Inverse folding.
């Protein structure tokens, strides 16, 4: 047990004294998580609303596809995004390969399924009378969307948190499209892979502790939300 | 677009010409997926049954822990195993770092939370009268477990699907503890990461196809099982 304990004793000061490297990686990670989740939210919301509220043919097929996209291996997403970004590819002239922008793009693609699959599920779980009534009262499409999002807000928040958690902890796509370069596009998770490869376990441990802390905070928020939503649900049930 | 298409076309022969390198990776991946999911089911289902059927203190805490386990970043699992398995670590004498065995262990540990959390939820979702009636008729613990598993079959199989999917496509843990060594302990996802990183796009894409096909086959096989389970459940419902 001794060497492990020593590692831990050396790793803690790296965090407490705000080691430059650890801080940089942490900020990059938080930025990547926020930016890509934000982009996924903006891109995914119209699709999610279409699937959740629309009444056209093929809506169920779309929802099944959206659910299936949750199972997409991140490695594949990484490879496909990279194939479009390398110098000779369609978007190669933008020179995004091996940059932070490429990481943003790949992570957005990975966060999108959470919005597209979880938000419609939350909308469809609303009491059916609610939306029908709004429709009967002549709500416009925009009003209906606003109503659905407001009522399903807990589900939307859960989707956002799931997307944040996945972007925080993703390794494969980040390494493939970004090349895992120190101080450019390395995130906590991919930095751990590199530090273990280098044999600098102390840094890996410090980064691991920070990552764990971030994930724990997210999970605490999620649990609190779910408790809260349980309450709301109950109140709603009794009146219906 | 031409380049993207070329990559696509060049990848196809790699799959069909039975590249021995690809063949050995596929075989290893299938082994890892099947063995890891099976062991995870062996370990996880009893725990899920205890959570779902047991009436002891701390049952809810266990369920919350299992749910939290779903959110643990694979990289952190890899880091933890690495620290345990390095020669100077507590389990260093087992010589597991950078071996195929460590890949099996890592993927099994990642699969367990899926089995436990999702199966327990499925068992808890059973109509409460069913289990109480069985208890009242004096069903033994084994009989009760078999009944619960049979009735919650849809959810249990969904849990196994999720577990299998994660063992097929997860890289974070195995890259750290197994080292993702070329020609030795690479799974398909690990190999795609390796080739993508080395900018061998045809290889990465070819491996990606195979991975997708494998995931698709696994999902279809288990999905069929699930459908058959659905029939049984439907028959049960009207009698209630």
């Amino acid at each position: 047990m001794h060497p492990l304990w020593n590692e831990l004793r050396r790793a803690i000061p790296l965090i407490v004294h705000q080691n430059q490297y650890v801080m940089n990686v942490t900020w990059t990670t938080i930025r990547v998580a926020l930016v890509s989740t934000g982009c996924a939210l903006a891109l995914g919301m119209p699709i999610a609303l279409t699937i959740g509220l629309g009444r056209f043919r093929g809506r169920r097929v779309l929802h099944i596809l959206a659910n299936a996209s949750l199972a997409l291996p991140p490695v594949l997403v990484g490879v496909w995004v990279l194939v479009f970004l390398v110098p000779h590819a369609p978007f190669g002239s933008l020179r995004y390969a091996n940059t932070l922008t490429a990481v943003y793009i790949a992570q957005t693609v990975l966060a999108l399924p959470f919005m597209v699959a979880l938000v419609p599920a939350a909308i469809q779980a609303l009491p059916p009378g609610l939306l029908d009534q709004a429709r009967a009262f002549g709500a416009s499409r925009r009003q209906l969307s606003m109503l659905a999002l407001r009522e399903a807000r807990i589900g939307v928040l859960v989707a956002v948190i799931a997307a944040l958690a996945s972007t925080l902890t993703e390794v494969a796509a980040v390494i493939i499209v970004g090349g895992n370069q120190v101080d450019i596009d390395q995130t906590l998770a991919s930095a751990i892979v590199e530090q273990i490869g280098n044999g600098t376990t102390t840094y890996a441990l410090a980064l691991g502790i920070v990552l764990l802390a971030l994930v724990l905070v997210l999970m605490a928020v999620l649990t609190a939300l779910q408790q809260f939503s349980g309450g709301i649900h109950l109140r709603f049930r009794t009146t219906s | 677009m031409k380049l993207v298409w070329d990559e696509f076309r060049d990848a196809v022969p790699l799959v069909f010409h039975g590249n021995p390198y690809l063949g050995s990776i596929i075989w290893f991946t299938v082994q890892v997926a099947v063995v890891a999911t099976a062991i995870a089911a062996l370990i996880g289902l009893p725990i899920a049954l205890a959570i779902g059927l047991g009436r002891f203190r701390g049952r809810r805490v266990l369920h919350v822990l299992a749910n939290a386990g779903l959110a643990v970043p694979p990289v952190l699992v890899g880091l933890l195993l690495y620290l345990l398995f390095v020669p100077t670590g507590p389990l260093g004498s087992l010589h597991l770092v950078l071996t195929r065995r460590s890949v099996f262990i890592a993927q099994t540990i990642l699969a367990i939370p899926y089995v436990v959390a999702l199966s327990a939820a499925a068992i808890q979702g059973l109509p409460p009268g069913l289990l109480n009636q069985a208890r009242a008729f004096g069903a033994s613990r084994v009989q009760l477990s078999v009944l619960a598993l049979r009735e919650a079959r849809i959810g249990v199989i969904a849990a196994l699907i999720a577990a299998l999917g994660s063992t097929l496509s997860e890289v974070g843990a195995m890259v750290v503890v197994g080292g993702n060594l070329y020609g030795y302990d690479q799974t398909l996802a690990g190999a795609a990461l390796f080739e993508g990183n080395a900018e061998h796009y045809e290889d990465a894409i070819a491996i990606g196809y195979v991975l997708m096909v494998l995931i698709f086959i696994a999902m279809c096989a288990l999905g069929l099982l699930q459908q058959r389970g659905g029939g049984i459940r439907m028959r049960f419902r009207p009698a209630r």
